[in-house]
């Protein structure tokens, strides 16, 4: 009942304070609690029951979170859908989870006219029928549910293949929320602009700050202009984004004339922070920075590096460490045999604690593969230093083994990005008859720059075995909405 208790506590403590704001309206904690109860009763009248799965297809708006809270109150599972997915992809997810209903924006619902036969209810947020849900429902006692009940199926970002449905319970939300708040310690006057979508694990960050009584401002799709306007208009104290979003905001013409003085903290995650972006942001924003390292399978954000621990831009030689694990969760680096490696030695990061998922929906084989003696494997390679901070090196699936030597694509990408003419870069493995695999670099660069100059730059900064076999120039590095490089698309080009 964590989500229900969250609403009840804030209704009692801050009834007149804004809880959620989008481009259309704002709702107070009292209004949000009341509407959630109405929705739960209305959905129950439609036949939604405990254990049912309900898909939500929408850009970020207040009704999305209202639906999540209402479905949790009923014991039904909300299944957020990436609104940019193609029609067959959405239909595939809906069919796999057996969703009995799809809620969302009418424009998106109209695009997905053909859905599997399991769907018996379609309802648009922006139609009168949704607004009327529960407003005339007879008072009914809603069930009290244990935190062990599954509450959501959150799909992975699928940078390497088909998205998996991560089944989480309210106990996971509670564990991550309380652990995070114990470290971040936000006051209840936080106003956070959420630039990240509410359809995957990053939404746990917003739920966590809502638990503290914060006001969360939702954007229906990120643009630098929308984010800048939202920070200034709402006098935001926090903004939650991925590093690429921060780059775009700083590059926007309006950034120089926008009043961003209210910002106290920039939360960033999903991808490494480019050092040039960090240096520019520190100089121009004058606020603190908090790194968010998380994974949907472990409950979302389980590691953070706070403002007081962030190094000065000139002191960063490679990349900023992710930080320490939050209270209640544990992490270690393990070798190929699954044994913990010494401090400072690279291994796969594995995680243990009450935030872990229950498993992948209807996929016991994948669930078994991701767990190692009860620890969840992140697929991230990294090490833990003497102060307990986690440093990430690369994804295990992206590791290139050249004639028996480990080559980390992220290291090559970092060196490429240090060249002033390079705007973006991604490195993947290329099959080679002599060495097994060699690096291939894809680069987005300014006009006039050639591969010869970039290879010379790499030669000055990397050992010979780490240097790419060749460089290909492309117009854009493919990234998902969380800012992660979709390397599968780059490998498909080879």
Notable characteristics:
494 residues; alpha/beta; Rossmann fold; GMP Synthetase, Chain A, domain 3; 2 domains; nine-stranded mixed beta sheet; five-stranded antiparallel beta sheet; 15 helices; 26 strands; 27% strand
Structural commentary:
InterPro entries: AMP-bd_C, AMP-bd_C_sf, AMP-dep_synth/lig_dom, ANL_N_sf, ATP-dep_AMP-bd_enzyme. Keywords: Ligase. GO terms for molecular function: acid-thiol ligase activity. By secondary structure, the protein is an alpha/beta fold. It folds into 2 domains: 2-292, ANL, N-terminal domain (Rossmann fold), CATH 3.40.50.12780; 399-493, ANL, C-terminal domain (GMP Synthetase, Chain A, domain 3), CATH 3.30.300.30. Helix content is 31%, strand content 27%. It has 15 helices and 26 strands. The strands form 6 sheets. The protein has a 9-stranded mixed sheet with strand order 2-1-10-9-11-12-13-14-15, sandwiched between helices. Strands 16, 17, 19, 20 and 21 form a 5-stranded antiparallel sheet that branches. Strands 4-3-5-6 form a 4-stranded parallel sheet, with helices on both faces. A hairpin with a 3-residue loop joins strand 24 and strand 25 (436-445). It is globular. The mean pLDDT is 92.
CATH architecture of the largest domain: 3-Layer(aba) Sandwich
The number of helical elements comes to 15
The separation of the N and C termini measures: 49 Å
Indicate the structural class.
Answer: alpha/beta
- Give the count of structural domains: 2
CATH C-level class of the largest domain is Alpha Beta
Say how many strands there are.
Answer: 26
The average pLDDT value, as a whole number, equals 92
Low-confidence stretches: none
Percent strand: 25-35%
Based on CA atoms alone, the radius of gyration comes out at 23 Å
**How is the CATH topology of the largest domain named?**
Rossmann fold
Shape: globular
Please summarize the sheet with the most strands.
9 strands, mixed
Helix fraction, binned, reads 25-40%
Order of strands across the main sheet: 2-1-10-9-11-12-13-14-15
The name of the CATH superfamily of the largest domain reads ANL, N-terminal domain
